[in-house]
Amino acid sequence: MADIAGWEITEPEGGVVQPGHRIQVVDMIDPYRPDRLCRYRPLPGNKYVLLTVSVTNSGVMPVVASFSDFSLETDRGRKYNPIVMPDMEDDFGAARCPSPGQTETGSLLFEIPLIALPVGLLEAVSGEENRLGLPASDGQAIVA
Known about the structure:
Blueprint: E1 2-4, E2 7-9, E3 15-18, E4 21-32, E5 46-57, E6 70-74, E7 79-80, E8 103-113, E9 118-123, E10 130-132
Antiparallel strand pairs: 1-2, 3-4, 4-5, 5-8, 6-7, 6-9, 9-10
């Protein structure tokens, strides 16, 4: 537990808490395979990774999270920006702006090489970059 500027904050497992908001990776699908009716596919030698991310406004000021606030880090030390797939309904292409006390969830889609393993999500919603752990298939956070 930390006390930041008068806020008592408990760090969630696999999440990052900043004064006024909390961001957590809820789910990861690696590789993500779009519906067969979707016309988009990753480039040869690549795969899609889909993350579900929640943003909770724990303060009194507005919080705005957009897809440009995030990047995916791989085991090869590279960072990948999210892509916007027009057929996705729940992506962060539309910014998430939870009201105080509310949580909003959205999806982030990344295209990375087949041989790369995702190891962390970098977020900069507050302007400062923070690293979040990723859930593994058994629900445990990946420690990198």
